[in-house]
Structure formats: C-alpha cells, structure tokens
User: Fold this.
Amino acid sequence: MKDAPLCVIGAGMAGLCTAIAAAPRPVLLLSRGDHALDCASALAQGGLAAAVGCDDSPDLHATDTLTAGAGDNDRKAVEWLTGSAPGTVTWLESLGIDFDHDQVGYLLAREGGHSRDRVLHLGGDASGSRLVGHLSHVAQKASHIVWKQGCDVDALGLAQDRVVSVRWRQRQKCHATACSAVVLAGGSVAGAFLDTTHPCSSDGAALMLALKAGASGRDLHYIQFHPTALFAQSAADSRMRLITEALRGAGAVLRDHRGHRFMLELHRDGELAPRDVCARGVWQAQLRDGWAWLHAEHLKIDWNRQFPTVLRTCLEAGVDPRKQALPIGVAAHYQVGGLACDLDGHTSVQGVFAVGEIASSGVHGANRLASNSLLEAATAGRRLGQMLSGLTPGPVPEAEHWVERGAPASGDQLACLRQMVQQYLGPLRDASEIRRGLQLVDEGGPLSGRWQAQLLAAIMRSALADPCSRGVHWWRGCTPSQQSVTA
Assistant:
C-alpha cells in the first residue's frame, strides 16, 4: 500500500500541537466535536505554567511539581517538562499566541501548589478557549493537515502486531483509513462522573480503545478533582462550571456554612494548598453542609479583565461574585493516570502513541500541579509531532484484523454508570464499596459487555491494586503514614 498519513485522534491542545509540529508529514486529524472548541482544553480557565519570571527557575517549578505529585512522579520527566516550559512559551508565541502582559512583561498568576507567580494567561481566565481557538486556526490553514470533525473512532486495524489503520464514523458513514502511526490525544474519563467540569464526551472512549488493543495502563485510578466548581449545573448540559484556582491565587478564601475558614487547619498554604488537599477539604465540608463557599467579594480586582469567564458564568447562574459568596463543590476534573508511555509518547502497542491527558508519562505523579496540564499538552505534543515528522513512514500493510472498542451502554445504563462512578471513585474511596461496585460491572454482571462498564471495571481494579493513600487517591480512614488499607 502507498504511504499513509499520520492519524491524530483528538483536537484539544495536545492533538493540535502534535498535528501542527508534525509538518510537513501528512496528518489526518479526527475529532469528536462538531467545531473547534468542542474539547475539554477549551474549557480551561487556568493558563500555562512556566518559569519565566525573574524570581523563578525550572528547578523551583520542578520542586513544586514533585511536591504536588506526592513523590510519585518520574523525576527525569518532571525536569524535562519544567526545563522545556520557557521554550514551549516561545514556540507558541511563534505561532501567534500573545500571552497577557503589560509594559513590564508577562502578567503571571499564582495557583495552588506553586511557590511563585508563574501561570501565564490568555484573555484572563479565557485561556483555554483562546489557545485552542488560535491553534485551531493554525491547523485549519496548514496544508499538511486534513481535519475531520464529528468523528468517532471505534476500531483499530492491526497487522503483524502493529496498528496500521483506524475505523471511524462520521454522520453515520463508516470509513477505514490506513495510517503510518496513530496518536491518541482523546482526553479523559472525567466526564463519566455526575459532578464534573468536563463535557459528557470526555468518557474515556479513546482510552478504552487502546486498552482493548493491548496497551498498558498506568495509575488509571488517579483522577483529580477540582475543589471549586460552581454548585449549579447548566440547563444545557450536565457539566459543573469551573471557578478557576487563580481566583484563590488572587485572594479568594474558602469557608464552611458557619463562616469558618477550614483550609487554614488542613495545610500551611491554606487555599493555595495542592489541589488534592483542597478537594478533600471541600469534600468534607460538602458532606457536612451540602456545599462550601468561596468568598471573593472582598477582592479589589478588575473582574472584566482578569476573570471575565468566572464573572459571566456566575451571573448566568444568578450569583454575583463581586457581591456574594459562591456555593461551590468538588467535581471530577482531570485524569492524572492513563496510557503508560515514555516522553516520546510510545505506548506498549507498536504504532500507537499517546499525548495529553490520556497519556501517563510520570510527569504528574499522584496529583497534577495546577496549570501543568496545558503545559504538558503543548510541550509533549510539540515533541511528539517533531519526532514523527522526521520519521520515514514507508508502505503500510493491509489490516489483518480489527480491534473494536465494543458495544456502548444505553441511556439508562449510562445514567446508572455515572452514578456508580460518582459513588465509588470520588475523592474519598472505600475498598469494600469498590469491590461491591466491581461485581456490578465485571464480567457476568448486569452491565457487563458495555465498553463503559469495562472501563469502569479497569479503573476499579487499578484502585484496589493500590492500597495506600497518595495524592488524588485517598482511602477513607487511611492516612499516608498508614500506607495501606484492606483491599
């Protein structure tokens, strides 16, 4: 067969950066959304972390990343990411990205877990949509990229133990395309939760497809929860609206229903503790009172310039953050674990690479440091794209057999599964409850055979195989010093 294109599945920050950096190699970019901003990256309010301030350094950034990751990071991967971060900023600027700045330099914000102001924004808290929007425009103009939207990739074709083709559906039409390599940039499973900052399309579809093809997972149970999601779901979808951590960096504080500032008792940095600590603190307040409160009404800030997205979101929900405390709760936000891969994106399946949230290279450890996600997506995407651009693809054989993701769950089954994910895999977990849930989704259970149930079972098994509290994975009644639970 003639030379085939590189296939990139997913057009968030990671997929776009990979496709752009792969030039001049031909790229087929497949995305599930019907337009450019239909991705989780576009919802990011936090920006991109990089040691570009005069009082900062990649070493300090690495130290903060390792601390947030609870010591479970791959140190070499962390040092690569933080050391590459200033260069990533320069590369994005070469593509036309104009980060927020004044006459002196970048406008840098501080978020939880950071010891310096090092988070760059684009349009204040509209960073994700601005970045994705600009990179989408670059990709659409690039002559080496063919972008197909509204696609669902449901099978991989293999020959000689290597992925050589993909099967995808668009508007009820089925296509099979030969490819020289497949890059999975399909995001997270966070949208499978009832309380989530992600769209429901963040359901782990690409992750399940890779697992079915034999790819190894790493720490699938590491799922990060955002501590400040507005406690009001949109009528348009089930997603909870994010309240950026940068608002706490600007001085907003967390209180319970009695007005008690509870985070001061849980961590020396209070509201700027690492995200997993804040999430557990807010979760405990939720269990007591139904929700917690984020107070920002005392801040002397320019809301329209610094936090236009938060302001609009809150006003649409009927609360004014300039005058009122915000009712907030914990919501699933980021899958820290994923497909095991190295820094070049290689998975355990030949011809399959992973990048972005679906990938687990060890950079984040057991808890992602705030705003390292867009940084990793851009940095790893650029590295992977440039590496693949330099490879000579050669002819691709016909697929010998196909690996399918599997039958999807029905509407009622999906509702049941989302309730189960919320119950069993929240910020505080119970081994006996997870074992009970596993019986419902495992082979022979009432939901077995549906790929969403199979993915949930894989995550539950991953949790039970890690019987100690660490980072985002916290067992009820178990502290890190105990190091084990009865799993």
